[in-house]
Amino acid sequence: MSAVRSVTVLGLGTMGAAMAARIAGAGFDVTVWNRSPERTVPLRDVARVAPSAAEAVEGADAVLTMLFDADAVRAVMATALPAMRPGAIWMQSSTVGTLASAELARRASAAGVRYVDAPMLGTKAPAQQGRLTALLAGADTDLAELEPVVRAVASKSVRIGDAAPAASGLKLAANAWIATITAGIAQSLTIADRLGVDPGLLLEALDGTAPDSPYAQLKGRAILAGGFEPQFEVAGLLKDVRLARAETERIAPELLDALERLYGETADEGAAGDDIAAVWRAFQHAAPVVAAAERRAG
Ligand SMILES: NC(=O)c1ccc[n+]([C@@H]2O[C@H](COP(=O)([O-])OP(=O)(O)OC[C@H]3O[C@@H](n4cnc5c(N)ncnc54)[C@H](OP(=O)(O)O)[C@@H]3O)[C@@H](O)[C@H]2O)c1
User: Which residues contact 298 (CB under 8 A, 6 or more apart)?
Assistant: First the structure.
């Protein structure tokens, strides 16, 4: 087993930038590339910045992709995959769904590259703190070699199997839950508001009870504060809800359909780049009332 020393990170969005900084901080020799070069600026002190994806991956022991969706990964890896060192490991952490992950694994294999299906659970703050949960499907030896890299970004790992796309399947299930719980707390805050109750009392009443969850409290507080600074953007979760809907035809579609509509409306109204808590807005359509935050302030 050879040790991974050099890591290339392709994609420096909310997650990729934070993960690249963590990997560099753990002592790896890091190279980064991003389609929009300005996003490389904050990493220039800790990583080598490459002018193209193909040049970024040359000679790297491991390549981490953290791009928006499957189309972005296909576009970037069309040039980067042929430039990877044969036998290098491709850690694919973008959320792309099972069909695309299986396809990417086949492309990797044809290029003589080892593929690890490695989507991440957790948003911006856990990524910055190295507290993501890594969902991992790959061969034992590949995962063993990658383990120090994974440890730099994740405080917990869940092994799902020895080949793609099992981890990507679990990721879609987890994100359907995140979509549900966020829409759920937005709905209940709206119900309280419409029934003349201070919505803040909902979070207080739920606090510490069996149906409570730290995530519902987090998103509930964001909604009450009206602060939708992105931790996880609406556009990303909408993409994942659509993937879950498209890849699970044999389950009742009603809830996924409703989620797709709610997050879709939120995105259509100009909030695609806001945090997913902005789904609260989709519940305000029928009869706009004074926003909870304004009422509390007033
Ligand atoms: N944010 C979260 O909480 C979270 C948590 C877990 C997993 N994820 C998943 O992780 C992945 C990255 O998420 P993120 O929040 O970091 O996304 P993001 O902030 O929107 O960043 C997306 C990245 O993809 C790049 N990109 C998009 N289309 C491209 C294309 N056609 N060619 C080349 N590059 C392209 C962007 O480059 P530019 O800078 O040039 O636009 C940027 O580097 C997604 O699959 C997401 O679903 C996100």
Answer: 290
126 lines ligand 1 (CB under 6 A): no
Q: Could you read off the pLDDT of 111-166 as tens digits, one per residue?
A: 999 999 999 999 999 999 999 999 999 999 999 999 999 999 999 999 999 999 99
Strands, DSSP E only, in the chain? 6-10, 29-33, 48-49, 62-65, 89-92, 114-117, 120-121, 132-137, 154-161
Which pair of structure tokens corresponds to residue 95?
Answer: 């959320």
- CB of 115 within 6 A of ligand 1: the answer is no
Q: Which two tokens stand for residue 244?
A: 């879950």
| 3 state DSSP class of 86 | coil
Q: Which helix (H) or strand (E) holds 22?
A: helix 14-25
Q: In angstroms, what CA-CA distances link 45 with 35, 54, 284? A: 19, 21, 45
How much distance in Å is there from the Cα of 71 to the middle of ligand 1?
11
> Does the Cβ of 11 fall within 6 Å of ligand 1?
yes
> Looking at residue 291, what is its pLDDT?
47
CA dihedral 105, 106, 107, 108 (to 10 degrees): 50
State the Cα–Cα distance between residues 207 and 228, nearest whole angstrom: 22
The finding on whether 16 has its CB within 6 A of some atom of ligand 1 is yes
Q: Find out whether the beta carbon of 101 lies less than 6 Å from any atom of ligand 1.
A: no
Q: Is the CB of 125 under 6 A from ligand 1?
A: no
**Which residue's alpha carbon is nearest to atom 11 within ligand 1?**
94
- Using CA positions, which residue lies closest to atom 44 of ligand 1? 68
